[in-house]
Amino acid sequence: MPEDQNIEYKESWRDEYLKWICGFANVNGGKIVISDYQNLNDISRETATRDLKELIDRQLIKSSGQKGAGAFYTLL
């Protein structure tokens, strides 16, 4: 598969995750924790961390600023 097609596939794949985050956050007071994101998408903690960091970088979500068990993310 040419690289440009692979990149397009990855972008649409991540967009699908974003739809799940929006739906989940809407029923949980606008918040999502990393373990919920991880379980919702059936991915490793490392992948969940990387995905959420990317969403922060894209200014789609923001972090609570907390580390560990109290950490959560909200939609912008």
Structure description:
- By secondary structure, this protein is mostly helical.
- It has one domain: Winged helix-like DNA-binding domain superfamily/Winged helix DNA-binding domain (Arc Repressor Mutant, subunit A, Orthogonal Bundle), CATH 1.10.10.10.
- The model is unreliable at 5-9 (pLDDT under 50).
- It has three helices and three strands, in the order αβααββ.
- α2 (34-41) crosses α3 (45-57).
- The radius of gyration is 13 Å and the shape is globular.
- It has a three-stranded antiparallel sheet with strand order 1-3-2.
Q: What structural class is derived from the secondary structure elements?
A: mainly alpha
From the alpha carbons, calculate the radius of gyration and give it in angstroms. 13 Å
Beta strand count: 3
Strand order of the largest sheet: 1-3-2
CATH level 4 superfamily: Winged helix-like DNA-binding domain superfamily/Winged helix DNA-binding domain
